[in-house]
Amino acid sequence: MSYRSYIGCFKDDIDFIYKDIIFTGKVLYREGLVTSHAGNISVRYKDSIFITKTGRMLGFLRKGDIAEVPVFKEDQKDKEASSELIVHREIYKKTDANAIIHAHPVYATALTFKLKDFFIPIDNEGKLFIGKVPIVEVEKPTASLELALTVSETLKEYNICLVKTHGVFIKSDTLNYALKLCSDLEFCAKIYTLAS
Fold first, then answer.
1. What is the CATH number of domain 3-195?
2. Mean pLDDT score of the chain, rounded to an integer?
3. Of residues 70, 67, 95, 71, the one with CA closest to residue 82
4. How does residue 13 score in pLDDT terms, banded at 50, 70 and 90?
5. Sign of CA dihedral 22, 24, 29, 34
6. What are the φ and ψ backbone dihedral angles of 35, each rounded to 5 degrees?
7. What is the three-state SS of the chain?
């Protein structure tokens, strides 16, 4: 179910988005998928992106830690948003995503130093839910136009994209499913590493 379909079931649509982002941040932090001040989360609703602000602690978010910016143009509020806004915006422009998580799961990120083009899980759950995960390499792997273009192109075909030396971008219909994919990816990366 997408935000387009289940937003509207709630009394205050926008309030639900804030609550969803805050909840997702807590889980990402508690599962160790981000460090104290790293990672970012966004939701697209109509022509707006709701995205965590730069340098915020995902495990302790409040409503004021989330910025609303336009999807299709730059805005004065962009400087408040996460430095990875450029990547989120490009993904929303090029795909049908309604939710994006950018995290730094330790095992999955570590695998980008060893593997070349893809991470292919070896465990049953990984084969079922994750499948083949592309690994992209760019000269500037943080908040660059090169990163935004490369990741958004990759996410036209896949739901998960690992960035060499940096972390993961996950797009989905809902934050809940993006969170599941992020958690599953790290579990699969642990199995792969321990089995190796």
1. 3.40.225.10
2. 94
3. 67
4. confident
5. negative
6. -85, -175
7. CCHHHHCCCCCCHHHHHHHHHHHHHHHHHHCCCCCCCCCEEEEEECCEEEEEECCCCHHHCCHHHEEEEECCCCCHHHHHECCCHHHHHHHHHHCCCCEEEEECCHHHHHHHHHCCCEECCCCHHHHHHHCCEEEECCCCCCCCHHHHHHHHHHCCCCCEEEECCCEEEEEECCHHHHHHHHHHHHHHHHHHHHHC
Q: What residue type is 56 in one-letter code? A: R
What residues act catalytically? 84
Tokens of 167: 């972390």
Query: Can you read off the two tokens belonging to residue 173?
Result: 């219909």
pLDDT in tens, 153-196: 999 999 999 999 999 999 999 999 999 999 999 999 999 999 99
What are the residue ranges spanned by the domains of the chain? 3-195
Res. 105: pLDDT tops 70? yes
Is the pTM higher than 0.85? yes
